[in-house]
UniProtKB/TrEMBL annotation:
<dbReference type="InterPro" id="IPR036013">
    <property type="entry name" value="Band_7/SPFH_dom_sf"/>
</dbReference>
<dbReference type="GO" id="GO:0005886">
    <property type="term" value="C:plasma membrane"/>
</dbReference>
<keyword id="KW-1133">Transmembrane helix</keyword>
<comment type="similarity">
    <text>Belongs to the band 7/mec-2 family.</text>
</comment>
<dbReference type="InterPro" id="IPR043202">
    <property type="entry name" value="Band-7_stomatin-like"/>
</dbReference>
<dbReference type="Pfam" id="PF01145">
    <property type="entry name" value="Band_7"/>
</dbReference>
<dbReference type="InterPro" id="IPR001972">
    <property type="entry name" value="Stomatin_HflK_fam"/>
</dbReference>
<keyword id="KW-0812">Transmembrane</keyword>
<feature type="domain" description="Band 7">
    <location>
        <begin position="51"/>
        <end position="210"/>
    </location>
</feature>
<feature type="transmembrane region" description="Helical">
    <location>
        <begin position="28"/>
        <end position="51"/>
    </location>
</feature>
<dbReference type="InterPro" id="IPR001107">
    <property type="entry name" value="Band_7"/>
</dbReference>
<protein>
    <submittedName>
        <fullName>Stomatin (EPB72)-like 3b</fullName>
    </submittedName>
</protein>
<keyword id="KW-0472">Membrane</keyword>
<dbReference type="InterPro" id="IPR018080">
    <property type="entry name" value="Band_7/stomatin-like_CS"/>
</dbReference>
Length: 281
Protein backbone atom coordinates (compact mmCIF):
# COMPACT_ATOMS: atom_id res chain seq x y z
CA UNK A 1 0.00 0.00 0.00
CA UNK A 2 2.89 2.35 0.80
CA UNK A 3 4.45 1.64 -2.61
CA UNK A 4 1.12 2.40 -4.34
CA UNK A 5 0.85 5.71 -2.45
CA UNK A 6 4.38 6.67 -3.52
CA UNK A 7 3.64 5.80 -7.13
CA UNK A 8 0.43 7.87 -7.06
CA UNK A 9 2.35 10.82 -5.58
CA UNK A 10 4.99 10.58 -8.32
CA UNK A 11 2.24 10.40 -10.95
CA UNK A 12 0.55 13.50 -9.50
CA UNK A 13 3.87 15.38 -9.49
CA UNK A 14 4.59 14.40 -13.08
CA UNK A 15 1.13 15.52 -14.16
CA UNK A 16 1.57 18.84 -12.33
CA UNK A 17 4.96 19.37 -13.99
CA UNK A 18 3.48 18.59 -17.39
CA UNK A 19 0.64 21.04 -16.85
CA UNK A 20 3.08 23.66 -15.61
CA UNK A 21 5.02 23.31 -18.85
CA UNK A 22 1.84 23.76 -20.85
CA UNK A 23 0.72 26.77 -18.80
CA UNK A 24 4.09 28.47 -18.96
CA UNK A 25 4.89 31.98 -20.10
CA UNK A 26 3.48 33.16 -23.38
CA UNK A 27 6.61 35.09 -24.24
CA UNK A 28 6.98 38.69 -25.31
CA UNK A 29 5.12 38.34 -28.59
CA UNK A 30 2.35 36.40 -26.89
CA UNK A 31 1.76 39.07 -24.28
CA UNK A 32 1.71 41.75 -26.97
CA UNK A 33 -1.02 39.85 -28.80
CA UNK A 34 -2.98 39.38 -25.58
CA UNK A 35 -2.76 43.12 -24.82
CA UNK A 36 -3.85 44.03 -28.34
CA UNK A 37 -6.76 41.60 -28.09
CA UNK A 38 -7.80 43.10 -24.76
CA UNK A 39 -7.69 46.62 -26.21
CA UNK A 40 -9.74 45.45 -29.19
CA UNK A 41 -12.36 43.95 -26.87
CA UNK A 42 -12.47 47.12 -24.76
CA UNK A 43 -12.86 49.43 -27.77
CA UNK A 44 -15.67 47.39 -29.31
CA UNK A 45 -17.14 46.39 -25.98
CA UNK A 46 -20.87 46.33 -26.83
CA UNK A 47 -20.23 44.03 -29.76
CA UNK A 48 -17.31 41.89 -28.58
CA UNK A 49 -19.02 40.98 -25.31
CA UNK A 50 -21.06 38.40 -27.20
CA UNK A 51 -17.83 36.77 -28.42
CA UNK A 52 -16.20 36.82 -24.97
CA UNK A 53 -18.96 35.27 -22.87
CA UNK A 54 -19.29 31.49 -23.08
CA UNK A 55 -21.51 29.05 -21.18
CA UNK A 56 -21.01 25.38 -20.38
CA UNK A 57 -23.56 23.03 -18.84
CA UNK A 58 -23.38 21.45 -15.39
CA UNK A 59 -21.99 18.21 -16.84
CA UNK A 60 -19.41 19.95 -19.05
CA UNK A 61 -16.03 21.62 -18.55
CA UNK A 62 -14.11 23.94 -20.86
CA UNK A 63 -10.36 23.63 -21.44
CA UNK A 64 -9.11 27.05 -22.61
CA UNK A 65 -6.11 27.47 -24.88
CA UNK A 66 -4.43 30.88 -25.17
CA UNK A 67 -2.12 31.06 -28.16
CA UNK A 68 -1.89 27.27 -28.08
CA UNK A 69 -1.17 27.01 -24.33
CA UNK A 70 -3.53 25.86 -21.59
CA UNK A 71 -4.33 28.92 -19.52
CA UNK A 72 -5.04 27.26 -16.16
CA UNK A 73 -4.51 23.99 -14.32
CA UNK A 74 -8.26 23.66 -13.80
CA UNK A 75 -10.92 23.50 -16.47
CA UNK A 76 -13.60 26.20 -16.51
CA UNK A 77 -17.23 25.63 -15.70
CA UNK A 78 -19.97 25.01 -15.16
CA UNK A 79 -21.65 28.30 -15.90
CA UNK A 80 -20.32 31.50 -17.49
CA UNK A 81 -16.68 32.19 -18.29
CA UNK A 82 -14.84 34.72 -20.45
CA UNK A 83 -12.32 34.34 -23.25
CA UNK A 84 -10.45 36.69 -25.54
CA UNK A 85 -11.93 36.24 -29.01
CA UNK A 86 -8.72 36.70 -30.96
CA UNK A 87 -6.23 34.69 -28.90
CA UNK A 88 -8.29 32.15 -26.96
CA UNK A 89 -10.01 28.95 -27.98
CA UNK A 90 -11.64 26.28 -25.87
CA UNK A 91 -12.67 22.63 -26.01
CA UNK A 92 -15.77 21.30 -24.25
CA UNK A 93 -15.39 18.05 -22.36
CA UNK A 94 -18.39 15.97 -21.27
CA UNK A 95 -18.04 14.55 -17.74
CA UNK A 96 -21.02 12.19 -17.88
CA UNK A 97 -20.54 8.43 -17.70
CA UNK A 98 -20.27 6.80 -21.12
CA UNK A 99 -21.12 3.17 -21.80
CA UNK A 100 -20.23 1.13 -24.87
CA UNK A 101 -20.35 -2.48 -25.98
CA UNK A 102 -17.14 -4.37 -26.59
CA UNK A 103 -17.57 -6.18 -29.93
CA UNK A 104 -17.47 -10.00 -29.70
CA UNK A 105 -13.85 -11.13 -29.54
CA UNK A 106 -12.65 -14.56 -30.70
CA UNK A 107 -10.40 -15.68 -27.85
CA UNK A 108 -8.27 -18.79 -27.35
CA UNK A 109 -8.43 -19.73 -23.68
CA UNK A 110 -5.60 -21.19 -21.63
CA UNK A 111 -6.86 -24.75 -22.25
CA UNK A 112 -7.00 -24.18 -26.05
CA UNK A 113 -10.75 -23.62 -26.42
CA UNK A 114 -11.98 -20.98 -28.86
CA UNK A 115 -14.80 -18.83 -27.45
CA UNK A 116 -16.50 -15.57 -28.41
CA UNK A 117 -16.86 -13.05 -25.57
CA UNK A 118 -18.36 -9.56 -25.47
CA UNK A 119 -18.84 -7.07 -22.64
CA UNK A 120 -19.83 -3.58 -21.53
CA UNK A 121 -17.56 -0.81 -20.21
CA UNK A 122 -18.64 2.27 -18.24
CA UNK A 123 -16.20 5.17 -17.98
CA UNK A 124 -16.10 8.93 -17.51
CA UNK A 125 -13.63 11.79 -17.84
CA UNK A 126 -12.04 12.55 -14.47
CA UNK A 127 -9.42 15.07 -15.69
CA UNK A 128 -10.64 17.23 -18.60
CA UNK A 129 -7.22 18.78 -19.24
CA UNK A 130 -5.45 15.41 -19.50
CA UNK A 131 -8.20 13.99 -21.74
CA UNK A 132 -7.65 16.87 -24.19
CA UNK A 133 -3.88 17.34 -23.98
CA UNK A 134 -2.61 13.75 -23.59
CA UNK A 135 -4.63 11.84 -26.19
CA UNK A 136 -6.21 12.75 -29.52
CA UNK A 137 -9.53 10.99 -28.91
CA UNK A 138 -9.95 9.66 -25.38
CA UNK A 139 -13.29 7.94 -26.13
CA UNK A 140 -12.04 6.06 -29.20
CA UNK A 141 -8.74 5.15 -27.53
CA UNK A 142 -10.55 3.72 -24.51
CA UNK A 143 -12.77 1.60 -26.76
CA UNK A 144 -9.77 0.10 -28.59
CA UNK A 145 -7.90 -0.50 -25.34
CA UNK A 146 -10.94 -2.28 -23.87
CA UNK A 147 -10.94 -4.78 -26.75
CA UNK A 148 -7.25 -5.62 -26.37
CA UNK A 149 -7.55 -5.80 -22.57
CA UNK A 150 -10.45 -8.26 -22.89
CA UNK A 151 -8.37 -10.51 -25.13
CA UNK A 152 -5.30 -10.31 -22.89
CA UNK A 153 -7.18 -11.04 -19.66
CA UNK A 154 -9.26 -13.92 -21.02
CA UNK A 155 -6.22 -15.48 -22.68
CA UNK A 156 -4.87 -16.31 -19.21
CA UNK A 157 -8.08 -18.11 -18.09
CA UNK A 158 -9.29 -21.61 -18.83
CA UNK A 159 -12.85 -22.41 -19.88
CA UNK A 160 -14.05 -23.36 -16.38
CA UNK A 161 -12.78 -20.09 -14.90
CA UNK A 162 -14.28 -18.13 -17.78
CA UNK A 163 -17.74 -19.62 -17.19
CA UNK A 164 -17.73 -19.51 -13.39
CA UNK A 165 -15.67 -16.44 -12.43
CA UNK A 166 -17.11 -13.62 -14.55
CA UNK A 167 -17.06 -11.19 -11.65
CA UNK A 168 -13.35 -11.74 -11.03
CA UNK A 169 -12.55 -11.35 -14.73
CA UNK A 170 -14.57 -8.12 -14.92
CA UNK A 171 -12.76 -6.73 -11.85
CA UNK A 172 -9.37 -7.62 -13.36
CA UNK A 173 -10.31 -5.91 -16.63
CA UNK A 174 -11.49 -2.80 -14.77
CA UNK A 175 -8.21 -2.57 -12.84
CA UNK A 176 -6.07 -2.95 -15.97
CA UNK A 177 -8.14 -0.45 -17.95
CA UNK A 178 -8.18 2.08 -15.13
CA UNK A 179 -4.39 1.96 -14.76
CA UNK A 180 -3.84 2.28 -18.52
CA UNK A 181 -6.25 5.20 -19.00
CA UNK A 182 -5.30 7.14 -15.87
CA UNK A 183 -2.77 9.20 -17.86
CA UNK A 184 -5.57 10.10 -20.30
CA UNK A 185 -7.79 11.49 -17.55
CA UNK A 186 -10.25 8.59 -17.86
CA UNK A 187 -11.84 6.78 -14.91
CA UNK A 188 -13.19 3.30 -15.68
CA UNK A 189 -16.12 2.78 -13.32
CA UNK A 190 -17.37 -0.67 -14.25
CA UNK A 191 -16.76 -3.57 -16.62
CA UNK A 192 -19.23 -6.39 -17.21
CA UNK A 193 -18.97 -9.59 -19.26
CA UNK A 194 -22.21 -9.91 -21.24
CA UNK A 195 -22.08 -13.24 -23.03
CA UNK A 196 -19.74 -16.18 -23.62
CA UNK A 197 -20.51 -18.05 -26.84
CA UNK A 198 -19.13 -21.57 -27.17
CA UNK A 199 -18.73 -23.54 -30.45
CA UNK A 200 -21.72 -25.77 -31.27
CA UNK A 201 -19.66 -28.97 -31.10
CA UNK A 202 -18.41 -28.03 -27.65
CA UNK A 203 -21.96 -27.19 -26.54
CA UNK A 204 -23.17 -30.63 -27.67
CA UNK A 205 -20.25 -32.35 -25.94
CA UNK A 206 -20.87 -30.45 -22.70
CA UNK A 207 -24.62 -31.20 -22.88
CA UNK A 208 -23.93 -34.91 -23.40
CA UNK A 209 -21.50 -34.91 -20.48
CA UNK A 210 -24.00 -33.15 -18.23
CA UNK A 211 -26.79 -35.54 -19.26
CA UNK A 212 -24.58 -38.57 -18.54
CA UNK A 213 -23.69 -37.13 -15.13
CA UNK A 214 -27.38 -36.55 -14.35
CA UNK A 215 -28.28 -40.11 -15.38
CA UNK A 216 -25.48 -41.51 -13.23
CA UNK A 217 -26.69 -39.53 -10.23
CA UNK A 218 -30.28 -40.66 -10.87
CA UNK A 219 -29.23 -44.33 -10.93
CA UNK A 220 -27.28 -43.92 -7.71
CA UNK A 221 -30.25 -42.24 -6.02
CA UNK A 222 -32.63 -44.96 -7.27
CA UNK A 223 -30.30 -47.69 -5.99
CA UNK A 224 -30.07 -46.00 -2.60
CA UNK A 225 -33.88 -45.74 -2.50
CA UNK A 226 -34.26 -49.47 -3.28
CA UNK A 227 -31.77 -50.32 -0.58
CA UNK A 228 -33.57 -48.19 2.00
CA UNK A 229 -36.95 -49.64 0.97
CA UNK A 230 -35.59 -53.19 1.34
CA UNK A 231 -34.32 -52.43 4.82
CA UNK A 232 -37.70 -50.93 5.78
CA UNK A 233 -39.56 -54.01 4.46
CA UNK A 234 -37.23 -56.30 6.37
CA UNK A 235 -37.88 -54.41 9.61
CA UNK A 236 -41.65 -54.47 8.93
CA UNK A 237 -41.60 -58.22 8.34
CA UNK A 238 -39.78 -58.74 11.63
CA UNK A 239 -42.40 -56.71 13.50
CA UNK A 240 -45.27 -58.65 11.87
CA UNK A 241 -43.59 -61.97 12.65
CA UNK A 242 -43.40 -61.08 16.34
CA UNK A 243 -47.17 -60.38 16.54
CA UNK A 244 -49.64 -62.51 14.50
CA UNK A 245 -52.40 -59.99 15.12
CA UNK A 246 -50.36 -57.34 13.24
CA UNK A 247 -50.77 -59.33 10.03
CA UNK A 248 -54.56 -59.34 10.51
CA UNK A 249 -54.57 -55.59 11.08
CA UNK A 250 -52.50 -55.08 7.96
CA UNK A 251 -54.95 -57.24 6.05
CA UNK A 252 -57.91 -55.14 7.23
CA UNK A 253 -56.08 -51.92 6.38
CA UNK A 254 -55.48 -53.19 2.82
CA UNK A 255 -59.20 -54.00 2.43
CA UNK A 256 -60.08 -50.50 3.65
CA UNK A 257 -57.76 -48.95 1.09
CA UNK A 258 -59.26 -51.03 -1.75
CA UNK A 259 -62.81 -50.16 -0.71
CA UNK A 260 -62.02 -46.44 -0.66
CA UNK A 261 -61.13 -46.52 -4.35
CA UNK A 262 -64.66 -47.77 -5.31
CA UNK A 263 -63.43 -50.85 -7.17
CA UNK A 264 -65.97 -53.40 -8.39
CA UNK A 265 -63.58 -56.31 -7.88
CA UNK A 266 -61.98 -57.08 -4.55
CA UNK A 267 -59.41 -59.86 -4.16
CA UNK A 268 -59.27 -61.57 -0.77
CA UNK A 269 -55.84 -63.03 -0.14
CA UNK A 270 -55.82 -66.32 1.77
CA UNK A 271 -53.09 -67.26 4.20
CA UNK A 272 -50.64 -69.83 2.90
CA UNK A 273 -51.15 -72.15 5.87
CA UNK A 274 -54.85 -72.54 4.97
CA UNK A 275 -53.99 -73.37 1.33
CA UNK A 276 -51.42 -75.93 2.43
CA UNK A 277 -54.04 -77.67 4.62
CA UNK A 278 -56.33 -78.21 1.58
CA UNK A 279 -53.48 -79.29 -0.64
CA UNK A 280 -52.53 -82.10 1.79
CA UNK A 281 -56.10 -83.43 1.60
Amino acid sequence: QHIEMEQSKRRVRSDDDLISERTGSLGCVGWILVILSTIFVAVLFPITIWFCVKIVQEYERAVIFRLGRITDRKAKGPGIFFILPCTDSFVKVDLRTVSFDIPPQEILTKDSVTVSVDGVVYFRVSDPIASVANVINADFSTRLLAQTTLRNVLGTKNLAELLSDREGIAHSMQTNLDEATDHWGIKVERVEIKDVKLPHQLQRAMAAEAEAAREARAKVIAAEGEMNASRALKEASLVIAESPSALQLRYLQTLNTIAAEKNSTIIFPLPMDVMSHFMRK
